[in-house]
Amino acid sequence: MEWLIVAALLALGVCAAAWWLQERLIFFPQPIVSISHLPARAVPLEVIVADGARVRGWIVGGATVPAPAVIYFGGNAEEASWTLAETRWPREWTIVAVNYRGYGASEGLPGEREITADALAIYDSIVRREDVDRKRIVVFGRSLGTAVAARVAAERPVAGAILVSPFDSLTAIGSKHYPWLPVSLLLRHRFDAISVATRIRAPLLAIIGDADSIIPPRHSRALFDAWAGPKQWRVITGADHNDISSFAEFWDGVVRFLEDREKP
């Protein structure tokens, strides 16, 4: 009987630790190590969000005015400046990348509610710019950022959404990686993308690595199947979670999807 009590206490202790420390298991804020990799056209961007915090990133202007725009939402361990250094972004498009709270130079602490509200504030600030075509804004999410991008697409008018390594919900992914934990009971930051996908009518490009070791393709497929708008499913053979954007097929798909939305 004593060993049962000990086992129960250990289980409760593990659950309590998971409850209190879950932010450290979900969010991995990255500092700005350098900005020398940023393109010369990159201009600092600061958005003051609802609670007064300042989230910071950059905007790289497109070749035309007003230009179509991509708003980028990165992964849980990503500092946003690096995506702006990618040379394969179409020059006709304005690219916006802002670090989550606690990442880079952004103020505050990350959390699902805060990050989602900030994403909507970022969209609202971009849509008001005279150098951006408000009818041609595409949200681009990667990994954790796919749930953020999906929420923006559900709440604001967008011309399209590009989701790289998307997932149905963080509850489902957490249950896969921690099957010995009651994740559905413990998780505060659920990032439940599938619940909003059914009301998104914007076109979707989903890009999947068939060797993804973090987000199994079946979880990506669940979100894709729930998406209400027109959609494309693009599988990159041999791509894992962190190297998917190094494949030429990845950027071929991104550029083609954006080109289809360049005309007003």
The CATH fourth-level homologous superfamily: Alpha/Beta hydrolase fold, catalytic domain
Number of domains: 1
| Largest sheet, spatial ordering of strands | 1-2-4-3-5-6-7-8
| SSE class | alpha/beta
The name of the CATH architecture is 3-Layer(aba) Sandwich
Sheet with most strands: 8 strands, mixed
Number of strands: 8
Instruction: Tell me what portion of residues adopts beta-strand conformation.
Output: 15-25%
Return residue spans where pLDDT drops below 50 for at least 5 consecutive residues: 2-20
Helix content: 25-40%
Describe this structure in words.
This protein has 264 residues and is α/β, with parallel strands linked by helices. It is 36% helix and 20% strand. Helix 3 crosses helix 4.
What topology emerges from the helices and strands here?
Blueprint: H1 2-26, E1 42-48, E2 54-60, E3 67-73, H2 81-84, E4 94-98, H3 112-127, E5 132-142, H4 144-155, E6 160-164, H5 170-177, H6 183-186, H7 194-197, E7 204-209, H8 217-226, E8 231-236, H9 248-259
Parallel strand pairs: 3-4, 3-5, 5-6, 6-7, 7-8
Antiparallel strand pairs: 1-2, 2-4
Helix pairs in contact: 3-4
Tag the structure with descriptive keywords.
alpha/beta; Rossmann fold; 8-stranded mixed β-sheet; disordered N terminus
